[in-house]
Amino acid sequence: MERDVQEILLDRVQIAAKVKELGKKISEDYRGKDLLVVGILKGAIMFMADLVREIDIPITVDFMAVSSYGQSTESSGAVRILKDLEVSVEGKNVLIVEDIVDTGLTLRYLLENLKSRHPASVRVCTLLDKPSRRQVEVSPDYNGFEIPDKFVVGYGLDYAEQYRHLPYIAVLKPEAYGREE
Ligand code: PRP
Ligand code: MN
Ligand code: MG
Q: What interface predicted TM-score (ipTM) does this complex get?
């Protein structure tokens, strides 16, 4: 196990089972419809890659990159688009794929931004939901796990751009924060 990890909250087996379940549900709900799946970089990379492989209807994929956290563990509240979609969402059924909904600020921004482009529908699928931290009222349509108010890393989620590659969701040891490498 990675030396900075204190506790594994969700291991790869638990994640894989949940991703499979979510993919099945999404496939059923959108069968016979066009679906554009939008992964939110960078946190959603692994969830997106695993989730689309559990969807058994025709889809298209695209990505947006937004950032609010910067190098901190706390949200600054200001969301920036770092990379926009390459395709138009007008008239399409859009499914936003996020790794985590925390304060909800990122998601609220994404929803408002995408809805202004006149899609047929917009829904949200997140792997993790931390409702205790919510600052704005948003709720995902598909949610993998509700988690407690702990800062988590791995499976795409970072602390200061590190730990995204871990194949599980984990809590770091206190000494892992603010360490100069
Ligand atoms: C993280 C995470 C979500 C967002 C959730 O992204 O991936 O996108 O924060 O937080 P919120 O609900 O409080 O807005 P981050 O801005 O760290 O960028 P990243 O995905 O590139 O790590
Ligand atoms: Mn993110
Ligand atoms: Mg981040």
A: 0.98
E strands in the chain: 5-10, 35-41, 60-67, 80-83, 93-101, 121-129, 142-146, 152-153, 169-172
Cβ-contact 72, 100 below 8 angstroms: no
Q: Which residues form the pocket of ligand 1, taking CB atoms under 6 Å from any ligand atom?
A: 40, 42-43, 67-69, 75, 98-107, 158
Q: Residue 126 Cα, ligand 3 centroid: separation in angstroms?
A: 15
Domain ranges of the chain: 12-147
In the chain (181 residues long), the average pLDDT of successive 10-residue segments reads: 95 98 98 97 98 98 85 70 97 98 96 97 98 96 97 97 98 88 57
The DSSP bridge partners found for residue 121 are: 93
Cα 69–148–46 angle (5° rounding)?
A: 55
Alpha carbon of 160 to ligand 3 centroid (Å) = 7
Matching CATH number, 12-147, of 3.40.50.2020, 3.40.50.800, 3.90.1720.10, 3.90.1150.10: 3.40.50.2020
Q: What is the structure's pLDDT at 1?
A: 82
Residue 89 CA to residue 92 CA, distance in Å, equals 5
**Packing angle, helices 12-30 and 45-52, rounded to 10:** 60
Residue type, 118: H
